[in-house]
Amino acid sequence: MTSIQFFYSPDFPGTALRANARQALENLGMNQEMQETETAPDQIGSPLPALAIDGEIVVSGLEPSVHELELLFADHVQERQEDFSCGECGVECGGMNCTENCTRCGKNGEASSMVARIIGFVILLIILFTAVKILA
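Above: the chain's sequence. Below: its structure in token form.
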């Protein structure tokens, strides 16, 4: 997660939401700081207290349980991982910069062979030159 923001006001302190969010992050083993901002409901366009993940309000006017927040945070992390084509390493590397135990690209941290890349490029060039000769 990039950022977690907690919005509150003196009239709506949201102490239960703040405590539950911190506990949910701790239970998930996420060392994520929560930015706390005192604001008015009309400034963020949502009832207070509110919780935002990466700038998107995900909870407003409610104080969900620790378990519900754990599910919300875990779901958000899973959505972010699915956005990346290379899974856990979070880099669209095609296996070039993969970390150990990356399940998406199948490289498992092994560097791809430069010789194999050169051979593949040479074969591609041969195919292209052959196609050009046939068509000419």
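DSSP finds four helices and four strands in the chain.
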